[in-house]
Design the sequence.
């Protein structure tokens, strides 16, 4: 079971009633370390001093949008970012993912849905840690890039590349299943852990984010390829890749 008490959550929303409601529900569900900010400047001030595990980020803030704030957050943190938005167009959703978000919920929302999504994320992370503690930590070496499971680091051509939580989890899943065709539904269930349907654009945008990190030319991928009509697979190069245990 996920250890809720140890995780730090930052709630960023200028509507104080929403912040108060979320804080109350999260505390009832077992979360203990909850920080609040009512604008972008306050959020950055907190993140410069505290390491967060989860950030619930409203899109419409008084000093700048959550979309503008998210890249700045990514310079400071690889925390799981859940957007709160009243905008539901595909463009808004894709924008959120493209600039570093991991998930989104549209307003108005049931606070228990937020809790369910955060717990699903933590459950996936906890299961990964538990498996790693039983087995030896793995290093997935694909030549151009190396994923270190024990430290959660992605190295590309010898350089450490920042990798947000969901991007890392998705790449790790592919590394553990090389040459396997993975459907979008399989990836949503395995990585996001949701029991209900999630827009499949979630996977497509995160695939792009992986390609931007590991491919020389993200528009012409050699490692993470699309299998038309079926899904995606991470191609194993027998000349370059080594999996060490």
Sequence:
């Amino acid at each position: 079971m996920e250890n809720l008490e140890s995780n730090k959550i930052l709630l960023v929303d200028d509507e104080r009633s929403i912040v108060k409601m979320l804080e109350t529900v999260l505390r009832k569900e077992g979360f203990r370390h909850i920080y609040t900010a009512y604008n972008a400047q306050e959020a950055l001030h907190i993140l410069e001093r505290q390491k967060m595990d989860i950030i619930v980020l409203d899109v419409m803030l008084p000093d700048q949008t959550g979309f503008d704030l998210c890249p700045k957050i990514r310079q400071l943190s690889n925390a799981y970012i859940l957007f709160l938005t009243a905008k539901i167009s595909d463009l808004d959703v894709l924008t959120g993912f493209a600039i570093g978000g991991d998930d989104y919920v549209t307003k108005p929302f049931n606070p228990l849905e937020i809790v369910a999504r955060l717990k699903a994320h933590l459950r996936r992370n906890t299961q990964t840690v538990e498996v790693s503690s039983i087995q030896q930590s793995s290093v997935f070496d694909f030549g151009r890039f190396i994923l270190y499971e024990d430290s959660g680091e992605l190295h590309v051509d010898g350089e450490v590349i920042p990798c947000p939580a969901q991007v890392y989890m998705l790449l790790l899943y592919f590394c553990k299943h090389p040459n396997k065709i993975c459907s979008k539904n399989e990836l949503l269930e395995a990585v996001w852990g949701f029991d209900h349907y999630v827009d499949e654009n979630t996977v497509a945008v995160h695939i792009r984010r992986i390609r931007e990190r590991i491919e020389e030319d993200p528009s012409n991928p050699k490692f993470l390829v699309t299998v038309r009509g079926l899904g995606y697979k991470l191609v194993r190069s027998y000349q370059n890749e080594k999996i060490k245990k």
